[in-house]
């Protein structure tokens, strides 16, 4: 196994576990509304980029064309979206949010706000903001890496060693 500091291994596990648990619990929270997290995700994205071509939607969500097509089929049969042929290229299908979906999205946003408040319960606002800042920086770094950019060496690497020692009485998760 690669010799990594304890905090580095723990960070990866924590990010993965929190993401997995959040997805699972969010699906449970949305179940009474009759929508899945995947459908909500696509619907929310379309509402911000109404009229996006279906293939571009698949690319931006990093989902296969068939997968996003099936999600849009379900959303369309529920009356939340409709597909229309592009006026210039009839082969292109653009996806639009319906009036019914806009009202439903307001309800979903309220449920999402309640859910997020529950999972952030007992966490200081400054800690949440620092966590958000750190995750956004990691996301930017990952996106830069995916574009083939080499990140500059960081002088903070010296600080990493200081954090790699486990705290007394605490085990790495």
Topology:
Layout: H1 6-30, H2 37-48, E1 52-53, H3 54-61, H4 65-77, E2 81-85, E3 93-97, H5 99-119, H6 125-146, H7 157-163
Antiparallel strand pairs: 1-3, 2-3
Helix pairs in contact: 1-5, 2-4, 2-5, 3-4
Pfam family, one: MarR_2
Region (Disordered): 146-173
Keywords: DNA-binding, Transcription, Transcription regulation
Biggest sheet, strands in spatial order? 1-3-2
Largest sheet: 3 strands, antiparallel
Helix content: 55-70%
Please state the overall shape, judged from the principal axes of the Cα atoms.
Answer: globular
Keywords: DNA-binding, Transcription, Transcription regulation
Domain HTH marR-type: 8-144
Region (Disordered): 146-173
Pfam family, one: MarR_2
Description:
- This protein is 62% helix and 7% strand.
- A 3-stranded antiparallel β-sheet has the order 1-3-2.
- 10% of the residues are buried.
- It has 173 residues and is mainly α.
- The longest helix is centred in the first third of the chain and has 25 residues, at 6-30.
- The protein has helices at residues 6-30, 37-48, 54-61, 65-77, 99-119, 125-146, 157-163, and strands at 52-53, 81-85, 93-97.
- It has one domain (6-146): Arc Repressor Mutant, subunit A (Orthogonal Bundle).
- Helix 2 packs across helix 4 (65-77), helix 2 crosses helix 5 and helix 3 (54-61) packs across helix 4 (65-77).
- A hairpin with a 7-residue loop joins strand 2 (81-85) and strand 3.
- GO terms for molecular function: DNA binding; DNA-binding transcription factor activity.
- Residues 146-173 are annotated as: Disordered.
- This is DNA-binding transcriptional regulator, MarR family.
- Keywords: DNA-binding, Transcription, Transcription regulation.
């Amino acid at each position: 196994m690669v010799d990594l500091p304890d905090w580095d291994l723990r960070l990866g596990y924590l990010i993965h576990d929190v993401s997995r648990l959040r997805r699972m619990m969010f699906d449970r929270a949305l179940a009474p509304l009759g929508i899945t997290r995947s459908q909500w995700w696509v619907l929310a994205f379309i509402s911000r980029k109404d009229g996006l071509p279906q293939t571009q939607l698949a690319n931006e969500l990093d989902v296969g064309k068939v997968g996003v097509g099936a999600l849009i089929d379900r959303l369309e049969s529920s009356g939340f979206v409709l597909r229309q042929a592009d006026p210039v290229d009839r082969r292109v299908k653009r996806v639009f949010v319906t009036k019914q979906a806009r009202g439903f999205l307001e309800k979903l946003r309220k449920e999402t706000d309640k859910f997020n408040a529950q999972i952030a319960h007992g966490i200081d606002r400054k800690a949440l903001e620092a966590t958000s800042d750190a995750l956004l920086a990691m996301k930017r770094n990952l996106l830069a890496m995916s574009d083939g950019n080499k990140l500059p060496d960081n002088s903070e690497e010296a600080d990493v060693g200081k954090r790699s020692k486990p705290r007394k009485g605490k085990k790495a998760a």
